[in-house]
Amino acid sequence: MDPVRAVVPCRACLSGEDLDWLGGGRSVSLALGLMTTVEVVAEPASGGEGGGWEEEVWAFLRARVPALDEGPPAVTVRSEAPAASGLSSSTARIVALFRAFTDAAVQGRRVSDATLTRWAYEFEFAVFHGGGMDHLAVVQGGALLLEGRETGLPVVRERLEFPGEWAVVVVDSGTRKDTGHHIRDVRAQLAAGDPVLAAYRAAADEVSGRVWEALRGRDLAALGAAMADGHAAMRDHQRMSTPLLEELREVALREAGLPLKLSGAGGGGSLVGVCAAAQVRETVARLARALGVSHPAARVIPTTAASGVRREPVPVVEVR
Predict the structure, then answer these.
(1) Considering the entire predicted model, what is its pTM?
(2) What sequence ranges are listed for the domain GHMP kinase N-terminal (predicted)?
(3) Average pLDDT score over residue span 167-177
C-alpha cells in the first residue's frame, strides 16, 4: 500500500472559550501552522511514533464504513504543536487519524469534510463532552466566527483569511491544561444557572465581536486590545488563568510590547499574540531572551495562520 498522509493544523482561540458549547454567544478561532502529520504505512517508519487513539478511531469508523479490516493499519504520527497546551493538538491528531484512515479505506473517493468534521466531533464529544470549535477550526482553516450551541457543532457565521502581513506568536508555558476537569465544572455552572458564568458569557461574546471586527478591518492594535480584554474575562470571571501565565503576559508586554491571551481553558497551556510579520523575528528574539532569564521552561514559537485540511476537489462521499 502506498503511504497515505494527512496533515492537520492546530488552532488558537482568539476569543470566546467555552461559548462554542455553552450556546448564546460567539467565539473566534484561528487555524495555526503547527501541523500534526499522520501517515498510514505498511509498517511503522523509523523515527515516527504512534500517537494514541488509533484503535478507538478505527472502531468508530468500522461502525460507519463497510468492509474495514478488524484492526487499524500502522501509522506514524508527528506533531509540531505542544501537547496539552490549549492549541487543540489532540483534536488535530484525531482529525488527522480520521482523514488518513478514511483516505486509505475509501479508495478513489474521499469522505467529505462535512462528514469528517461531524464524525471527529461525535467521537471526541463522547470522551470529553466539550464543543466543536476545534474540529471546525482545523478542517476549515483560516479565522472562523462561530455561534455556539449547547448541543452539536457550532454554526460558522463567517470565515476570513488571516492577514498575510500578520504573524502569530505562541508562548508555551510548559504547564499542562486540565480541560476535562474544567468542562465538568463549567457544565455544573450551566446546570445551576450560575450568574458568574452568565457574566462571563456576555463579556466573552462582546469581545468576540470586537476581535472579528479587528480581523475584518485589519486593525492590529484593536485586535491586541480585544484579545487582552478576552483574557481578562477568562481570568476574572472564570479563573482560567494562573499566576505563571500572568507573569508571562507581563514579561511579553514589558519586553516586547506584545499583548498575550490564554488559548483554551483549563488553567495552564499556551498564550497567543499577534504582531506584524515584519517584526516577528525581533519580537520573538526579545521575548525569548527575557523569558530565558525569568522563565526558562517557557518556549516562544512563531507561526502563521493555516488553511485547514481541505485540498483540491476530488470525488467525495457523504456517509451517515
Answers:
(1) 0.92
(2) 74-142
(3) 95
